[in-house]
Amino acid sequence: MASKQIVAFLLIVAVVLPSVAMATEYIVGDASGWTILYDYQAWAEDKVFHVGDKLVFQYPVGVHNVFKVDGAAFANCTVPPPNEALTSGNDTIELASPGKKWYICGVGNHCSQYGQKLAITVEGLSPSPAPAPISSPATPRKLKF
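Above: the chain sequence. Below: its structure as tokens.
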């Protein structure tokens, strides 16, 4: 009985661990960071985001912020209440579910006039290599002489 539980546990680890280990951390805007007058759509277009990946928004504290918004707020640069802002200057967001995600800067007219906004599509879990098959004890063979 205990051996079946161990095998089940090992199977779960073999399936879950590679997808967690394969998560990618993206610095939004790469070396430019989260700033104005940057084409974040061009930055994102060659990337494939998966559940478990992380977005890191880096910027000088007090100069910018990050809001997660819906599609309409993104299109109109509608800023949510200030208490919903991320403001650390090194904000990490883990992508927890698949689908469209939208982020804007809520400082002044950074979103509407300077294009400080990002829209991405998140896919399911990262593809991981198939786990190695678990071998069962060898079946004894009868040898013929």
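Confidence is low (pLDDT under 50) at residues 6-20.
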